[in-house]
């Protein structure tokens, strides 16, 4: 049986089934770009649309995830009275919660429980005492764990046709349960506008939306998407933690790693890991490509590299600089003596010096260099202090290939499957795929999938949409095809 299908957490709310797909990825991606959810769902009247956005922001106390929902209703304005009921005076959580608590709704109770003033006010209005058991002991092991403490503010716009909910959770503390809680709150607000049974029998899928609406740019690559490489990914996570907590570093006089060298065969995920690390840190990503440096004019390359580092010393926000294919930019050409190799050596010397200066001058910058040929890179360039973390990124073993298949297929499902459209068959055997793809890298596996997708799309185009989901046999055939076996 396939575990590729990331049928995430499913929960029932007010008769509706809600499915949260890949909530961890949603949260990780939201650090970099706002993630929009639920936009294409359909809603009972008078609700027209709901936009739920997860994004991130910097607050004095540190970075936070922000959850925002706006519920738009029919053009005809709702009565102020109805809206006012939603917001219960100035009380942020509002009457909608109060009513739900009164009705014994467990989610509402959990959300309000422990949220401080708002909850107290809501309970008071209902003439209830706060629950006697402390919140902590009531949630053990349930989805409510992280729900407690999620406080949503409810506001409405002038016209009275849009209701907005918002909530924030510290980045270090945010979990899928917060997302679930916020979705629950949003549905409560919807319910309040539509009437008690309006959601019964409906199904909502909360997942990152289609490629066509949110392009799957490199910006959205996260460490969670990397298959295998557990040790390496963990090491990068640690580095990210050190970057997100400059205060702790300063307190102990610790210096966080600022130079990482990744080496290994093509297509094993080095560039992907760099981008994912930038996202994990919440850093800007600056890729330096060979043509940016190498210049055929005398002195041009030196000037370019100096300029790149001059800029880097001024970066105010955490920035990851990627020197991809490092060996082609920076290597000693030996003592050949012709102008070209002298120029290359000069570039390498300047790089070395600039890298030292940069690390002294700007703790916000992290430099990642990747190469397929570590032996071509001069030792003095990568000696400790400049690149203090060296990661070998090997080809994936069988278990890792299974994981890469699983993660890629999950992503495709999350991005493309929709009600009435199943992309992959239910009986995929990832173990068999992993065994068949011996010697392949992550990039190869991506290509295997790309080919099958294209073949299916063409079949679809010719037959007018009557095409079966991608089967195990089709995947195996594509693996054999790519391997030339
Ligand atoms: N371990 C992995 N897990 C998930 N996807 C992977 C993995 N390795 C590679 N990929 C996929 O393959 C694509 C290409 O990998 P990437 O460009 O990161 O390889 P690379 O190591 O930088 O290769 P090169 O040395 O040729 O630059 C990635 O964008 C990703 O989709
Ligand atoms: Mg690369």
UniProtKB/TrEMBL annotation:
It holds the Pfam family AAA. It comes from Paractinoplanes atraurantiacus. Keywords: ATP-binding, Nucleotide-binding. Belongs to the AAA ATPase family. GO terms for molecular function: ATP binding; ATP hydrolysis activity. InterPro entries: AAA+_ATPase, AAA_ATPase_domain, ATPase_AAA_core, ATPase_AAA_CS, P-loop_NTPase. It comes from the Bacteria. Residues 256-397 form the AAA+ ATPase domain. This is Transitional endoplasmic reticulum ATPase.
């Amino acid at each position: 049986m396939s575990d590729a299908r990331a049928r995430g957490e499913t929960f029932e709310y007010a008769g509706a089934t809600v499915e949260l797909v890949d909530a961890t990825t949603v949260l990780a991606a939201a650090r970099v770009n706002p993630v929009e959810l639920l936009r294409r769902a359909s809603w009972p009247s008078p609700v027209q649309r709901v936009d739920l956005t997860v994004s991130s922001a910097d607050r004095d106390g540190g970075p936070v995830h922000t959850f925002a929902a706006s519920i738009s209703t029919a053009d005809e304005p709702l009565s102020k009275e109805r809206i006012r009921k939603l917001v219960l005076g100035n009380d942020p959580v509002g009457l909608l919660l109060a009513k739900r608590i009164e009705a014994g709704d467990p989610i509402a109770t959990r959300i309000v429980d422990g949220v401080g003033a708002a909850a107290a006010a809501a309970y008071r209005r209902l003439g209830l005492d706060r629950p006697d058991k402390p919140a902590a002991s009531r949630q053990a092991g349930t989805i409510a764990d992280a729900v407690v403490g999620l406080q949503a503010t409810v506001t409405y716009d002038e016209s009275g046709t849009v209701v907005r909910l918002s909530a924030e959770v510290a980045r270090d503390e945010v979990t899928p349960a917060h997302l679930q809680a916020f979705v629950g709150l949003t549905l409560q607000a919807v319910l309040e506008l539509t009437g008690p049974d309006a959601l019964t029998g409906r199904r909502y899928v909360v997942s990152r939306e289609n490629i066509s609406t949110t392009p799957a740019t490199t910006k959205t690559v996260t460490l969670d998407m990397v298959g295998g490489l557990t040790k390496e990914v963990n090491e990068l996570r640690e580095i990210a933690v050190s970057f997100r907590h400059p205060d702790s570093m300063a307190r102990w006089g610790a210096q966080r790693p600022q130079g990482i060298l990744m080496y290994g065969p093509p297509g094993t995920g080095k560039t992907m890991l760099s981008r994912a690390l930038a996202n994990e840190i919440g850093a800007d990503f600056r890729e330096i490509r060979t043509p940016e440096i190498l210049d055929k004019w005398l002195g041009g390359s030196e000037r370019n590299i100096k300029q790149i580092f001059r800029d880097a010393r001024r970066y105010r926000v955490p920035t990851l600089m990627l020197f991809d294919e490092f060996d082609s930019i920076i290597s000693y050409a030996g003592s050949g003596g012709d102008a070209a190799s002298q120029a290359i050596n000069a570039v390498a010397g300047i790089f070395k010096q600039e890298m030292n200066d940069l690390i002294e001058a700007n703790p916000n910058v992290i430099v990642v260099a990747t190469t397929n040929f570590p032996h071509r890179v001069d030792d003095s360039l990568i000696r400790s202090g400049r690149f203090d973390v060296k990661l070998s990124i090997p080809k994936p073993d069988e278990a890792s290939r299974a994981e890469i298949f699983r993660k890629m297929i999950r992503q495709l499902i999350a991005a493309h499957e929709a009600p009435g459209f199943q992309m992959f068959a239910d009986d995929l055997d990832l173990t068999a795929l992993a065994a068949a793809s011996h010697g392949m890298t992550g990039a190869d596996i991506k290509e295997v999938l790309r080919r099958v997708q294209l073949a299916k799309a063409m079949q679809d185009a010719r037959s007018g949409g009557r095409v079966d989901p991608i089967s195990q046999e089709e995947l195996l055939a594509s693996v054999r095809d790519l391997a030339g076996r």
